[in-house]
Design a protein that fits this description.
This protein is α/β, with parallel strands linked by helices. It has 2 domains: 31 residues, no CATH class; 297 residues, Spore Coat Polysaccharide Biosynthesis Protein SpsA, Chain A (Alpha-Beta Complex). Strands 3-2-1-4-7-6-8 form a 7-stranded mixed sheet, with helices on both faces. α3 runs parallel beside α12, α7 crosses α10 and α13 runs antiparallel to α14. The C terminus is likely disordered.
């Protein structure tokens, strides 16, 4: 064995060991992110922790669901609090555990006391039993391999609502997201963020050739309003049977959403719901999605804009008024919030 091969054989176990050490992982993240960017992130990110809790309903026709983990849980609070602040609704909220510590779970529960926190062990037990019971082995395999599968499978299988609003942790809202809200009697089509690029796990031609379904173009699954019944688990099971079409597991969830969207009426949200990794004017935007692992502009632009415009200084009652809700909406939300704070139903 050459000296280089010997060194490599010794280095591999060491790498595996270090990757299991939280301190080493944190140092590696800091090195990749950059110390200045990390300092800027933490400086503004934690301001949300001093804001009051958001009260939400326990059930309803529309639910809000978010998947988050130990690096993004504070970002998830910004996404959710900015959504509820500007939307002035009290839709039921469910937070899915993508790898949270016990302390982080408790902090999230303190800020969203009425939300359901779906812990991973409990979700695994139910989803494994239910998917296996339906014979959905490909769905089970996909779910075991990538956390994004929870956004597709768990969100819609565990929901009791008619519609699900899915929000990624790297989104912030600046104005009322009217296109995501449903008035009584309305039955809107599915609505997705518009993606500026093609981010599917295989070409549209290949997917159409394999499954006779051409994926809906420009779908970004980070922000969406979706009718639960349009996510077809049997179809997903069939599509996942072709492993070549879904080798890129990072993009599989978005691709499967695009396939489901092609089977039903859908709309892309207007350009005021922006997906971008670049700096740009926020005037007139309703939301901005900052995709990527480190996403420095989420902190240096999106959160900074919210701080500058006074978002952190508002309370629920003030946010309802500022968002332009009707007096009836205002009274309904405030009265429900007061009843819950007094222990009522």
């Amino acid at each position: 064995m050459s000296s280089q091969a010997l060194l490599e054989s010794l280095a591999q176990p060491l790498r595996r060991f270090l990757r299991r050490q939280p301190v080493w992982v944190q140092l590696a993240w800091l090195r990749r992110e950059g110390l200045l960017n990390a300092w800027r992130r933490r400086r503004i990110q934690r301001l949300i922790l001093d804001t009051p809790p958001i009260r939400t309903a326990r059930d309803g026709r529309v639910e809000v669901r978010i998947l988050t983990w130990q690096r993004d849980w504070i970002n998830a609070m910004w996404a959710l609090k900015s959504f509820y602040h500007f939307a002035c609704v009290d839709y039921p909220l469910y937070i899915h555990d993508g790898g949270l510590t016990e302390e982080q779970v408790e902090r999230l529960r303190a800020h969203f006391p009425d939300a359901g926190v779906i812990l991973r062990p409990q979700a695994d037990a139910q989803m494994i039993a239910d998917l296996a019971g339906r014979g959905l082995q490909n769905c089970l395999g996909y779910r075991s391999k990538h956390p994004f599968a929870l956004k597709l499978l768990d969100f819609f299988h565990l929901s009791c609502a008619e519609y699900v609003i899915s929000i990624d942790s790297d989104i912030v809202f600046f104005r009322r997201p009217a296109e995501l809200l449903i008035r009584n009697g309305e039955n809107p089509p599915n609505r997705y963020n518009r993606d500026p690029g093609y981010w599917y796990s295989a070409s549209a031609d290949k997917l159409e050739s394999q499954f006779r379904v051409r994926p809906a173009p420009s779908i970004n699954a980070g922000l969406s309003l979706i009718r639960k019944g349009t996510i077809h688990f049997d179809a997903i099971e069939k599509w996942l049977s072709d492993g070549d079409a879904f080798t890129d597991l990072w993009l599989a969830e978005q691709t499967l959403h695009a396939m489901c969207a092609a089977l039903h009426s859908y709309e892309l949200l207007p350009d005021t719901y922006l997906v971008s990794t670049e700096l740009g004017p926020l005037t007139g935007l309703i939301s901005k999605h900052y995709p990527g692992f480190f996403r420095p502009y989420l902190y240096q632009e999106g959160m900074k804009y919210l701080v500058r415009t006074g978002f952190l200084g508002t309370k629920l009652q003030t946010s309802v008024i500022a968002s332009g809700c009707s007096l009836g909406d205002k009274r309904g939300i405030v009265s429900r919030s007061l009843r819950r704070s007094r222990g009522g139903s």
